[in-house]
TrEMBL record:
Protein name as annotated: Nitric oxide synthase-interacting protein zinc-finger domain-containing protein
InterPro entries: NOSIP (IPR016818), Znf-NOSIP (IPR031790), Znf_RING/FYVE/PHD (IPR013083)
Ranges where the Nitric oxide synthase-interacting protein zinc-finger domain occurs: 63-116
Annotated Pfam families: Rtf2, zf-NOSIP
Subcellular location, record wording: Nucleus
Keyword Nucleus listed: yes
Length: 338
């Protein structure tokens, strides 16, 4: 043996090689909850790489896990610029409100009529409730008046207070006796709530209706909606004679001034006198300089409220999508306690 070195140990005395694997992503060796463990608990097995899973075809909405499941709607869920806000289909006869909400005329007329009938039913139900309240108050007043009359008659007849109580308490005593006969432990004055099966003592849960708002409101903005305030909209179709194979399939209309296609990327506005749809860039560069509608004959002077900006939901990207349009669908699930 070489000087300074210990002799080798026998084979059976050698230390066995380390077989412990990687535990950095396991939930059994730390006192805190790691990022990967929290992700697995929040989104489920299929979305956690530590569990050998991957995102499913549901996009960024996982169907397994704990906690509230959320996902942001992508661009395919965004309404197109020419789609009705109720039917979500391309408008056949488009009309727009003063707030820029686009509807198909047939759809919005049906909505207004059905909403008026619904409000009428709610109003009749509220009126019936109020009539019932008045009737109950009158009945209670009549009963109180009858009690006063009985007391007056008893005093005139010379009856004592005990005789009067025995005469007026017959109906109440009968109801109490019916309930007390089934409860052997009840030796004192019978409580009405313990004899709920007796018709005279049955509790009632009443639903109080609020006075309905008889105004038909826009289903999107909740502002008053009237049919006579809707403005007919005229879209300008793209020139079909040109080669449009490079255009996006969803771009069906264009600005009549700049010839640029209109979509959620390129928003537009409606000129109230003519109903023409013009891009907002042309409104800013051309229309607002003279404030004249060039599509009417003769040209009409415009006011600020005559320029209605169409409400668009965006493309699904943060730079082109309104914050209110980033709708998130949620689903409640059991929550993991950390």
């Amino acid at each position: 043996f070489r000087r300074g070195r210990a002799p080798p140990r026998p084979a059976d005395a050698r230390r066995a090689p380390a077989t412990m694997g990687k535990h950095s992503k396991n939930s059994n060796d730390r006192a805190f909850f790691s990022y990967h463990e929290r992700k697995a608990a929040s989104y489920g097995r299929l979305s956690s790489a530590m569990l050998g899973g991957h995102n499913t075809a549901d996009g960024n909405h996982q169907s397994h896990g704990w906690g509230t499941m959320q996902r942001t709607l992508d661009g395919d869920a965004m309404k197109e610029i020419d789609a009705c806000s109720l039917s979500l289909q391309a408008c056949v006869n488009p009309v727009v409100t003063a707030n820029g909400i686009l509807y198909d005329k047939q759809v919005i007329v049906e909505y207004i009529l059905s909403r008026k009938k619904e409000l009428e039913r709610e109003l009749h139900a509220w009126e019936a409730q109020e009539a019932g309240v008045v009737a109950d108050a009158a009945s209670e007043e009549q009963e109180a008046q009858q009690v006063r009359i009985d007391e007056f008659v008893a005093q005139q007849e010379g009856l004592s207070q005990s005789d009067l109580s025995s005469r007026t308490g017959k109906t109440v005593a009968t109801a109490s006796t019916m309930g007390r006969s089934l409860l052997s432990s009840d030796t004192g004055t019978h409580a009405p709530d313990t004899s709920f099966w007796v018709p005279q003592l049955t509790p009632q849960a009443r639903t109080t209706l609020k006075k309905p708002d008889t105004t038909v409101r826009c289903p999107i903005t909740a502002k008053p909606l009237r049919l006579k305030q809707l403005t007919a909209v005229k879209f300008t179709r793209l020139d079909e004679s040109k080669d449009l194979r490079g255009q996006i399939a969803k771009e069906r209309y264009m600005c009549p001034l700049s010839k640029r296609p209109l979509s959620n990327v390129h928003p537009a506005a409606v000129l109230r006198p003519s109903g023409m749809v013009v891009s907002t860039q042309c409104i800013k560069d051309c229309i607002k300089k003279d404030m004249i509608d060039p599509f009417t004959e003769p040209p009409v002077k415009l006011r600020e409220k005559d320029i209605i900006t169409l409400r668009v939901e965006g493309t699904g990207f943060a730079s082109k999508t309104d914050e209110k349009a980033l709708v998130v669908s949620s689903e409640s699930r059991p929550v993991a306690r950390f």
